[in-house]
Amino acid sequence: MNCSECNTEMVFGTHPIEIRVGRHVVVSQAVPHDRCPSCGYYELDAKAGEMLELRAAQVVMHEVREVDPAALKFARKALGLNQTDLAKKLGLTQETISRYETGVLAAGTEYRYALAGLLSYEEQILYGANMGRVRSEVAA
Fold it and tell me: What does the domain layout of the chain look like in residue ranges?
C-alpha cells in the first residue's frame, strides 16, 4: 500500500503516536500501524483510534494536576457521550459539565477521577486485556 500523501510505500511496524488532549500531548509507545518512512503519515483502523483516544484521555485525567477545559471535553467525546448523558452518569447537571468544559468553573479532582474511572471502564469493556500492550505517558 502506498502513502496517500507522497506515494511512498507504507511500512508496517510499531511506532509511537502523539495524541493532543487539550494543551497536553500524550505519547503512546509501540502502537502497531502502517507508516510512511518518507513523510511520517500513518493510518490506524477505527478501533485502534478509539482505543488510543480513550487511553490518552485516561492518562491525562490521572497524571496531570491541572486539566484544561479542552481536555475535559476530549475525555467526554472519547467516551462517546454528550454533556447531558455524562451529567446523568456522574450525578451532575448538564450546565455544570458545560461550565467545566468552557472554563467558567474549575473541575475538581473528584470530577477528573470520575471521568478517569469511566474511561477505564469503557476501555476494559471494549478492548479487554489488549490494553496492557500500549504504554502511554504525558509528554513534557
Answer: 11-130
